[in-house]
Amino acid sequence: HYWSFREEINVIDGLVYRNTSVIIPSKLKSEILKTIHVSHMGLDRTLSMVRGVLYWPQMSMEIKHMIESCGTCIQNRKHNTKEPLKPHELPTLPWQKVAADFLSLDQNKYLVIIDYFSKFVEIAQISSNNASTTISHFKSIFSRHGIPVELVTDGGPPYSSKEFKNFVESWGIKHTISSPYLPRSNGMAESAVKIIKNLLIKCKQSGTDPYLALLQYRNTPKGDMSSPAQLLMSRRLNCTLPINNKLLKPKVENLNRHMKVSIKNQENTKRYYDRGSRELSVLKSGDKVHFKHTPTGHWVPGTVIKIAGPRSYVIRDKEGVEYRRNRIHLMDQPWSTTTSNSSPNHFGLPNTTHNSPLPNSTEPESRDPNKTITNSDNNSNCNLPQNVSSRGRILIKPKRFTFSDFKK
Prior knowledge:
This protein is α+β, with helices and mostly antiparallel strands. It has 3 domains: 3-76, Orthogonal Bundle (Endonuclease III, domain 1), CATH 1.10.340; 97-273, Nucleotidyltransferase, domain 5; 287-332, SH3 type barrels. The chain has 11 helices and 16 strands. It has helices spanning 29-36, 43-50, 59-68, 71-75, 131-145, 162-170, 187-206, 210-218, 228-233, 255-273, 380-383, and strands at residues 9-12, 15-18, 21-23, 54-55, 97-105, 108-115, 121-126, 150-153, 174-177, 288-292, 299-309, 312-317, 322-326, 330-332, 387-388, 394-395. The longest helix has 20 residues, at 187-206.
């Protein structure tokens, strides 16, 4: 390795330099690496600090390995870049797919359910969010609008209970659980909670009836879409506003037109959201990762147990406790395995089979006077170390300009 730039090496005051960079022997590398990383800076700034100051073979790779495997840096690393939006599949019929979540306001609890197709919102004040109470309200709402094919929740209590599991199975409902600590994975329910909470706060401040406000919201079209009541019930709801009776007659909505508008809106939302996003690598069972117990906590090590769904994984920590996390909350370990099996020599040069040994530095053989002496310049290429590729090709490095060229 050093032979290829031997003319750049010099010794000053007992230190070996390559141009202006001090060559670090392998015995001192670990100590130098600790000194380099004392401020826990990132890779780019660290490399810019040591560039032209220090040198040893594969220095950049070893610095990258050290930074990416630093426990302190891992614990305090920033969150992952957001991934491209993965929208829910749009239903083709009203009340075919619904989402549910809880709302807490002024020590009162509410169950909020919204239809993916019509955006029709149902709300029920509950005394407790235990399984039996929640199930009774679900049954009451489903008895009015029908049983949905799919129900989307965040998987928290009581949705994770055995009683609720038995309920959805007995009613023939597909229960889809969104990723924990990722509100946008159940964005429809989160949006409904935000709307209803804002409505209740304003009604309380203004002293108006919240049920009349909810009626008006259900009766109001949004953009190019019909109102939630029209899309769900094919009719306008009678309210406190004066209205012609002809407008209250049932009228079947154009569902194909509604689907086209919904798909267009979903595509526009995805296009704006995907700016600055990037796909993260797909993990598999057995991969070593880091994750957070809570969004504000530190990164801790864990192991992928299984894939729970799209971008969703089950992780087991070192205590054996299992957690379900989205890919955005998982950080893979690029240096979990050794990158090279070669061992460095006293200069830090890996011993590989592709590099031929340096020219022999032992005493020269006795010269036979009968042999013809050839020009040493013509045979110099035969003595130079040759790097051979995995396919057997000889790799020839380009000849670089050196100060010794002035002497010729």
